[in-house]
Design brief:
26% strand; alpha+beta; 137 residues; 4-stranded antiparallel β-sheet
Length: 137
C-alpha cells in the first residue's frame, strides 16, 4: 500500500517561500532567463515533495525519495515513535513525523533513526505491526 508523505503547514510554507522568492526575483530582473530559473526552482521543489512517499511490501518498508526507492527490512524495526525532530529526512512535514529505529545499526549506517511522515499514521503502524508484532510503539 502507498502512503504519501503528509503535507502540513510547514510544507506549504516552504512552497510559498520558494514561490514568493521566485516571483520577487522575476519582478526585479529583466529577461526570460531569470523567469525560467524561477520556474525550474519551483518545479524542482514540487517534484521533490511529490517524490517522497512510502510503500509497505511483504516484508520491506520502501521509502521513495525523489522517486528513488530505498528498502528497509520490517523485521529489523525495533521501535516507531512520534518525533518533533527537524533532522533532514524523507518527510515533507516538520510536525507529523515518526522516528523508526532498527535493531541493526548497519541498516542506516548510523545511530540516527529514520524519520518519515506518512499519511494515515495509525494505519501505517498497524500494517507494520502485522508484519513484525515485536515493534515497540
Amino acid at each position: 500500500m502507498r502512503y504519501n508523505s503528509i503535507w502540513d503547514g510547514s510544507t506549504w510554507f516552504i512552497i510559498g517561500l520558494v514561490t514568493a522568492c521566485s516571483i520577487g526575483s522575476c519582478l526585479c530582473c529583466d529577461g526570460v532567463g531569470p523567469i525560467i530559473i524561477c520556474i525550474l526552482m519551483l518545479a524542482f521543489t514540487l517534484l521533490t515533495f511529490l517524490g517522497i512517499y512510502y510503500r509497505i511490501s511483504v516484508n520491506e518498508l520502501i521509502v521513495y525519495t525523489f522517486f528513488m526507492p530505498t528498502s528497509y527490512p520490517i523485521d529489523k524495526i525495533a521501535e516507531i515513535k512520534p518525533t518533533k525532530s527537524v533532522l533532514s529526512s524523507p518527510a515533507t512535514s516538520l510536525t507529523h513525523r515518526l522516528a523508526i529505529t532498527f535493531t541493526d545499526r548497519k541498516i542506516l549506517k548510523s545511530t540516527i533513526p529514520l524519520i518519515i511522515s506518512p499519511v494515515r499514521q495509525e494505519e501505517f503502524i498497524r500494517q507494520l505491526l502485522a508484519v513484525n508484532p515485536d515493534i515497540r510503539h
